[in-house]
Specification:
The chain is an alpha+beta fold. It has a single domain, classed as Nucleotidyltransferase, domain 5 (2-Layer Sandwich). Helix content is 52%, strand content 14%. It has a two-stranded antiparallel ribbon with strand order 1-2. Strands 3-4 form a two-stranded parallel ribbon. The radius of gyration is 18 Å and the shape is globular.
């Protein structure tokens, strides 16, 4: 199971959470990590039941976005992009050890997150400028 926190107005991925199960404990751990990083905000979910106890325990305001609402379309599209890119990564770089701890997926998601955030994009452009100061054209 993967949880993704996405801020649609700034078009930023705020966090990822990977686990082997879908339960309120995992959702609470994920939401707790987001509260620690970004403070308390309203949580919008697709209505999955395992979120209920998590947002109640953390005393977060919860809203469910409606199916086919513009908010639903934006969030689900971004989540699908993350899933598709992660599956493509797994196809090209399958994990070869017998016991998989998802470390390679975590590394990929961190890299994906870096490359899709404004700060990461600016950093990459600055590095390119230092490494390639001449024009390639």
């Amino acid at each position: 199971m993967g949880l993704v926190a996405y801020e649609p107005y700034e078009k930023k991925i705020l966090g990822f959470w990977l686990s082997r199960t879908r339960n309120s404990y995992e959702a609470e751990l994920f939401l707790r990590s987001l509260v620690k990083l970004y403070g308390r905000h309203t949580v919008y979910t697709d209505g999955a039941l395992y979120y209920n106890e998590a947002y109640r325990t953390l005393k977060l305001v919860h809203r469910t976005y409606e199916f086919r609402d513009w908010f639903f379309n934006v969030i689900e599209r971004e989540v699908q992009v993350v899933k598709d890119r992660t599956e493509s990564f797994e196809d090209y770089f399958p994990y070869s050890k017998k016991v998989c701890r998802l470390e390679h997926v975590w590394r990929w998601l961190n890299l994906f997150h870096l490359f899709n955030q404004e700060e990461g994009i600016n950093l990459i452009e600055r590095i390119k400028g230092v490494m390639l100061p001449w024009s390639l054209s």
